[in-house]
Amino acid sequence: MLFLIPLSCAAQNMMNDKHNAIDIVLVHGAFADGSSWSQVIALLQQKGYRVTAVQNPLSSLADDVSATRRVIDRQPHEVLLVGHSWGGAVITAAGNASKVRGLVYLSALAPDSGQSVAQMLQRLHAPMSGMQPDADGLIWLDDAAAYAQVMAGDVSPEQVRHLAAVQQPIAAAAFGEPLVHAAWRDKPSWYLITEGDQALPTAVQRKLATLLGARTRQLISSHMSLVSHPQVVADFIEQAAQAIQAQDPSP
């Protein structure tokens, strides 16, 4: 049994070599955990990529960035970093790691250098509202009906109940933490814009994608496109990976 782990890792690494050694790291948002990527992970693995989902504590921006950097450091190859929703703020900071080659934003927040998420939303005339922290300073979305309305209007009721059951609350203070330098200032980015999104207005997503100079795709979807449209999301991520590979001068 002890020999199964290294043999499995070796086989996966051999498979990854077919894809020019680009590893994919997925960063979930608020009110979710790493399992929200399950369908996307399976599709990307079928394409031959090494894929790892970060488990963000959502206790602070700094904590989430640290968790993401630990995963980046463990990758044997260069990294394509993917962030959904709040995860966009995380990859904007963690993406400064030298191993990161590109950034993919899925309906995601993308603060500028020296800016917090709250400041970014205020500047875009979309201030946060309707999120009341509890006595511990945490914001929850653990009611299935509310989850469907805000996050997952095109997801089956069964899946919504599961998402609400595993959702992780986020510390309200995290939205006020500024990041030092925005990685998208230096690295190529891609942005999947979801039309009809009830969590992050589509107009705000378009403004962010323009600010980033990102290559974009538009999709009619709820905020949880990674659950309701996993094939589209996986294909979009692969397109970014292929674009990075095409720029790689190595044989």
Q: What does the largest sheet look like?
A: 6 strands, parallel
CATH superfamily: Alpha/Beta hydrolase fold, catalytic domain
Count the helices. How many? 10
Into which percentage range does the β-strand content fall?
Answer: 15-25%
CATH architecture: 3-Layer(aba) Sandwich
Rg value? 17 Å
Structural class: alpha/beta
Number of domains: 1
Q: What is the strand tally?
A: 8
Strand-and-helix sequence, N→C? HEHEHEHEHEHHEEHEHH
Could you write a compact summary of the structure shown?
By secondary structure, the protein is of the alpha/beta class. The chain has helices spanning 4-16, 38-46, 61-74, 87-94, 117-123, 144-150, 157-166, 202-212, 225-228, 230-246, and strands at 22-27, 51-54, 78-84, 100-106, 138-139, 170-171, 189-195, 215-220. This is Hydrolase/acyltransferase protein.
Describe the structure.
- The chain contains 10 helices and 8 strands.
- The protein is an alpha/beta fold.
- The radius of gyration is 17 Å and the shape is globular.
- Helix 2 crosses helix 10, helix 3 crosses helix 4 and helix 6 packs across helix 7.
- Helix content is 40%, strand content 16%.
- The strands form 2 sheets. Strands 2-1-3-4-7-8 form a 6-stranded parallel beta sheet, with helices on both faces. Strands 5-6 form a two-stranded antiparallel sheet.
- The chain has a single domain, classed as 3-Layer(aba) Sandwich (Rossmann fold), CATH 3.40.50.
